[in-house]
Amino acid sequence: MKIIKYIFFLILCTTCCYTLAACGDKEKDDIPAQVSINCSPTSLSFDIQGGVQKVDVQTNREFSVFTDADWVTVTPTSGLSGTTTVSVTCAENTIYGDAPRTAALTIKSGTTRSTVSISQLSPEKPAPSPIVSPIEGYSLVWNDEFDVDGKLDSQKWTHEVQKQGWVNNELQNYVNTISPEGKKVTEVVGGVLRINCFKENGKVYSGRVYGNKSKGFLYGVFEARIKLPKGKGTWPAWWMMPVVYTGWPHCGEIDIMEEVGADPNVVSSSIHCTAYNHPNNTQKTSSMTCKGAEDDFHTYTLEWTENYIQTYVDGKKQLTFTNDKKNNDDTWPFHVAFYPILNLAWGGDWGGYKGVDDSALPVTMEVDYVRVFQK
After folding, report:
1. CA-CA-CA-CA dihedral for 66, 68, 73, 79, to nearest 10
2. Which residues are catalytic?
3. Does residue 22 form part of some domain?
4. How many CA atoms lie within 13 A of 157 on its CB side?
5. In terms of domains, do 76 and 204 share one?
6. Residues with Cβ within 8 Å of residue 310, at least 6 apart in sequence
7. Alpha carbons within 13 A on the beta-carbon side of 270
8. pTM for the whole thing?
9. Do 188 and 83 fall within a single domain?
10. Could you read off the pLDDT of 332-374 as tens digits, one per residue?
11. DSSP conformational letter for 278
12. Same domain for 280 and 207
């Protein structure tokens, strides 16, 4: 009897041990293996033209793959455990930059992630084309392309400050950059100089600026690309006065371009000196219609030599004034340095000769660039 009980006890113990062992193995099998992601290579470098490169993704679980850049595509976008080869396509880089552009390829499995870095060379910005004189034989010596937004370059330009009625019975007040309430009479926006004329507290404010005023230039080609304002009362001008002022009209004046809004798109060039000036109605003037002068930019050019003065509108000759060689300042005071001027007047003897229309305000004269060339 004892022997039978002992045999039963052995069988029971063996069964329990086997059962516990079996249970222990089952729990071990239920523990998931740690997710493993290995990528080769771990970084990709592309040249400017782009192209296709391969990445081997080795995982022990299903995975997905994606990128954070719109210039990178990847196929396939998912895979199973094992080793999967992924193709990474990089588009051509057409965006100028000082450094390579970068992106990342992300491989995800559950909460585990691995990344492959991507870089691509950026094309260098080409050097700007040299600025060429519109008339052969001259080289650039001074210019402003108005490339930097904000205020005018004070190293190049000087603002005039004068009250209403200062010259020609004009109605505007010229101020240095801003009006009493802080509105800008001059500003550089989007690569363009804007000369603004507006009404504030019953007064009209505008801008008048001088280029290289202290030194000026003796002879050369002077060019500006300008869009004129609209409205009866406007009087924009692109012109020149001598560095050393000896009294007008004896000192001389060169008007490259003037227009009054009462006669839209009619632009004129004039010469003033003792012998030829508008108070005596003897000034040398040439006017022409420039279609769309108030709707788009047009180029106004002066060629000034010791022998003649000529102006052009979009390359078309407008005014020619010849040195009579009498060595007389009354007819040719144009043998000293002059400086360029840009301004927008309101009303006055000519600008308001048909009256002014205040409802046109505010108005703006826009200047794309100013360039000076000399031999």
Report:
1. -10
2. 253, 258
3. no
4. 24
5. no
6. 302, 303, 317, 318, 319, 320, 321
7. 19
8. 0.73
9. no
10. 999 999 999 999 999 999 999 999 999 999 999 999 999 999 9
11. G
12. yes
